Structures are given as C-alpha cells and as structure tokens.
Amino acid sequence: MDDLPVYDVVLLPPPDVNARSADLSRSCAEPAPTEFVLREDGPYPHISLYMANLTPGDCAEAVRLLAGIAARTPALHLAADRFAGNEHGMFELFYVKTDAVTRLQEDVIAAVAPLRTGLRRLDPVGRVLADHRLTAPPPAPENLDRYGYDEVGELFRPHVTITRFRERAWRPGDGALPPAAEFTATYDTLALCVMGEHGTCTELVETFALAADRRPSAAPDPAPVAP
Fold first, then answer.
1. Residue range(s) defining the domain that contains residue 122
2. Is the C-alpha dihedral spanning 78, 80, 84, 85 positive or negative?
C-alpha cells in the first residue's frame, strides 16, 4: 500500500486568506530555512480534515461522497485565534474549533474512512505511523486503529500549517507576524487533494462549493468547542 497516493480532505481558504497565508509563508522563509513555502497555486494553504490512502476507484467514490456532503453543508465562519510552533518545526495558525467544523469533520470521516486502504506509512512530521501508534498517548492509537487518522475528536485542532522550519526550534518573532485575526474568514470550499511531504497539499483532485444558500453571517459560530 506504500505505492498508493495519500489524499487529504481539506477546507480551502477564500482568496484573500489564501494570498495572506502564502505571503506569510514566504516571509517566514526569509530569515530561516524551511521545508516548504506555500503558494496561491500550490502547495496550497488548507485546513486538514482527514487523510487516507485511497485506490483510484475509492478516490472516485470519495469525490462523489464529498460532493454530497458539500451540497448540504453551509459555509463555515472560522475565527483565527493564534500562531504556534511545535517541536517538529511546524509553524501553524490555529482557528477556534466550533461545533460546525467538528460536524463537518465527522461527516467527512463517516463517508471516506470506510474507503481507506490500510494505514498511511508516514504522518506529516515523518513518523512511521505503524510504530507511532504503539507509543502515542491516547486517544491517538484508538483513532489510528478506528479511522487511520489520529487528529479526530479532542485531537482535532483546525489549523493552517504556514511552514516547517528546518531548525525545528526556530520561531518568528512576534513583531514579524500579522495579527491572527486578519486570517478570520468564511471557508466555503471543501476539497480533495493529493498530499505531499510535510503534510502539504500539492495537487487539487476536486473542489466542492459548500452550500451557498446557507452562507452564515459575518459573526463567528456561537458554539466554540473547548480544545
């Protein structure tokens, strides 16, 4: 199954946040080497919902199922909360987790997880998942066994990965970052993409407009979920 592509079901930002994310990724790469730089035309800024190995036939079925989910799901207003880096060098923009985005992830997993082939070989930071599931704290092993993906339920923290620093401890200075609130936006596009190294979204297989007739107001979803 190592020869199967890994796919990522994602939310794509609107054009202004897409451009802003790519600009920030480029600026992060100026003072320190990075593993990748986001671009408006790929690798694409995105919020991951679910990752899986899929055969060509199952990929086509996933496209069909995702189109149905998008048709009944309203666009999501997501409030950008903070920037943070982790020990693996990932520098991320986190959004407030809401009931609406949690429901969307649950719908995506219910539809696509049964189609997956086995367990992905590597996670975005390069760990071998078959080994990682033996040592990871709960509920990651249970999520990997059940869904083939660990960032589900309490581990789901909606975010855009801006870049990954080669010096894993490097962080941009606060003065180098725009206010996180500038990335608050209505996300109205679901997509299936091919995943590259470091969790990048390198190729868009299909995009799906979320239900335009139920677009929310500019106010954030009133039901944030505690991280």
1. 6-18+45-84+96-159+177-211
2. positive
| pLDDT tens digit sequence for 136-148 | 999 999 999 999 9
Residue 154 lies in a domain: yes
Does the model's pTM come out above 0.90? yes
In a domain, 188, yes or no: yes
pLDDT tens-digit series, residues 174-187: 788 999 999 999 99
| 152 is a domain residue | yes
What tens digit of pLDDT does each residue of 202-221 get?
A: 999 999 999 865 554 444 44
